[in-house]
């Protein structure tokens, strides 16, 4: 009987220790994943707040940690692009309105074709520049000033 108790103790203690290590690792990784959702840097005015917002289609966005920016905080060129999106064009670049693949997976995961991208002109840039607005099928708009390295949900 004493041998059996000792054997259970010898198996139980390392098992509990291993479980605690695993739980700690999962917590650390989850914390890292939620804090790497993008930076607030880049072009575009104002300091955006982390808030809950509602997309143009009425779909609630939980406080998922994504930075938000108001239309008024965006550069003038972004507001022009938003107006063109609402009017249905015409757009200055032939790539405008094409499917955005979300390869970086910084936006909520959706089916292919859910997101479309539009160029935000960058004054002085010899090409399209790095700034884009992404429109979701539900009407939610996202802004990136750094060519998809980070996004801010636009509060309309």
TrEMBL record:
Transmembrane region(s): 12-31
Phylogenetic lineage: Bacteria, Bacillati, Actinomycetota, Actinomycetes, Micrococcales
Keywords: Hydrolase, Membrane, Nuclease, Transmembrane, Transmembrane helix
Pfam families, A to Z: Ribonuclease
Disordered: annotated segments: 37-62
Highest taxon listed in the record's lineage: Bacteria
Residue spans of biased composition, Gly residues class: 38-47
Protein name: Uncharacterized protein
GO molecular function, one term: RNA endonuclease activity
């Amino acid at each position: 009987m004493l041998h059996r108790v000792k054997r259970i103790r010898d198996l139980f203690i390392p098992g509990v220790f291993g479980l605690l290590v695993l739980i700690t690792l999962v917590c650390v990784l989850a914390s890292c994943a939620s804090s790497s959702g993008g930076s607030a840097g880049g072009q575009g005015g104002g300091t955006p707040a982390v808030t809950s917002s509602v997309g143009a289609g009425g779909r609630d966005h939980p406080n998922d940690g994504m930075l938000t920016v108001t239309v008024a905080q965006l550069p003038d060129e972004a507001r022009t692009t938003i107006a063109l999106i609402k009017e249905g064009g015409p757009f200055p670049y032939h790539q405008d309105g094409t499917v955005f693949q979300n390869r970086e997976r910084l936006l909520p995961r959706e089916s292919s074709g859910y997101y479309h991208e539009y160029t935000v002109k960058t004054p002085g840039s010899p090409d399209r520049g790095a700034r884009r607005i992404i429109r979701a099928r539900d009407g939610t708009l996202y802004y990136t000033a750094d060519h998809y390295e980070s996004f801010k949900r636009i509060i309309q």
